[in-house]
Amino acid sequence: MPELPDVENFKRYLDATGLHQRIENVAVLNAKILHGCSGETLSQALTGHELTGTHRHGKHLFAAIDDGPRLMLHFGMTGRLAYFKDLKDDPEHDRLRLDFANGYHLAYVNQRLFGQAAIVEDLAQFVAEQELGPDAFANDLDEEAFQKLLAGRRGQVKSALMDQSLIAGLGNVYSDEILFKAHLHPKTPVNSLDRNVIAKLYRAMREVLRVSIDSGAGSEELFERLPDDYLLPHREEGDKCPVCDGEVQAIKASGRTAYYCPACQPLEREK
DNA sequence: TTCCATGTTCCGCA
DNA sequence: TTGCGGAACATGGA
What we know:
271 residues; alpha+beta; Helicase, Ruva Protein, domain 3; 8 helices; globular; DNA-binding
């Protein structure tokens, strides 16, 4: 589930488990996840050092190595972290494992190998090179900044939300949830949205992110802990809309399957 | 067996 | 230039 809320909770998990411990050994278990560096480079950058702090930008997680370069992790479609003591608890799709001096291990687990791990020297430069827009949950992305991002933009609102170069962190699942909360059809043209609707969309985005993080995004219990009026647990064709009891529909939008409630999210809005 | 999946990138086309 | 649809990548579940 690695979109912004999930990665934010992975960050907090790493903060609570893997910081300030000497890394004795690094196991690169599948080199396909390496991005622009060899396993040797990554291993050398980490071994004998400790992780001193974390940062998240969109779906990218960074862990500073002795306040110097950073270990960058991107989780693709299936990644997560796992901290454990006994190696027999090492998860099946562990691709990169840090072995700490305290005997514990931190695994970067990624079934589908779409994720990435790298050593990043300069965070700002990396964000620029990857052409990432501002983080969707960042404090300095206020409503006015959000208005400016969407100004002059064409195309569908769902595409805009998922465009990492416009705003970083939203993917297929949470963009659906945000549009559901904002009562916007996924295919609504961005240039048809007036300031008030964009303001509503902004508030929906921030609230969905905050509530999803607080509800344990990235963990098994998310669906149980989300408020009852959230679409996520009903994100299936023909399921019942949690708000109006209409039927959830699936349509293709910008190459992905978008789930929405036609009754709550009509394409043409009267404002 | 076929289709589809929470992501990204590249290509051709409008 | 911008945006869109499709394909590709790798793996596994329905």
